[in-house]
Amino acid sequence: MNHPGPRNAIAEATALGTRPGLSRRRLGLAALATGAALLAGCAAVTQVATGDVVLRDRLVVTVDKPWNQFERGLGDNTPVWTQDGITVDALRFYVGLKDGELIAPTPSQPKGVQPLTFRSTMGAQDVARLFEALVARDGSSFTLDRIEPAPFIGQNGFRFEFSSVRKADDVRLRGQAWGAVRNGELFLITYTAPRLAFYPRGVANAEAIAKSARVRS
């Protein structure tokens, strides 16, 4: 099956493997993870054209270069866009989460995993901690590097920067997030990519999309 833009699993794993010290075993894990990801979202991969794009009938963003979209993410029902492959760079859109909704489904294994629930009373630090819990749930590390007020969706919001080491393959990631709570609903866009080459290349484009975001009336 051909998709409009993501690389195949081996090419993506090779890109990840350009980081010095990545073992063959971890390279193989990256390839397997990528292949599983593509199979999981096979029927829902579409190309995002340039211009105004509406996500979940609520959030509008302006795009100046094509992306590839996994409409339902990788089993968590969160739209994910990518330029170089979903395990390489990922732009995620959390659109209008209401009080009591989960930011992602709670896995059945291992037992005892706590649900990650959004509350309408959450501030910027609380949302950052919620996202940290999501990233770290599989054993990956997470470090909040910076958090500050920033305009988003036409109102006062927040922006935070973070770094992470992905457990599956030890790839070091950097990321940014832009968010706001509007009328008790959470709107959040996050971008992650390997820190050495992909992140510096893609973060400006991701930020431009985040700055263009507005809520459909």
What does this structure look like?
With 217 residues, the protein is an alpha+beta fold. It has one domain (9-215): Protein Transport Mog1p, Chain A. 24% of the residues lie in helices and 34% in strands. An eight-stranded antiparallel β-sheet has the order 1-4-5-6-10-9-8-7, with helices on both faces. A three-stranded antiparallel β-sheet has the order 2-3-11. α1 (9-16) packs across α2 (24-40). The chain starts with 8 loop residues before the first helix and ends with a strand. Residues 1-43 have low confidence and may be disordered.
Short description:
With 217 residues, the protein is of the alpha+beta class. It has helices at 9-16, 24-40, 124-136, 198-212; strands at 45-48, 51-55, 59-63, 67-70, 80-82, 90-97, 143-152, 155-165, 172-182, 185-194, 214-215. Helix 1 (9-16) crosses helix 2.
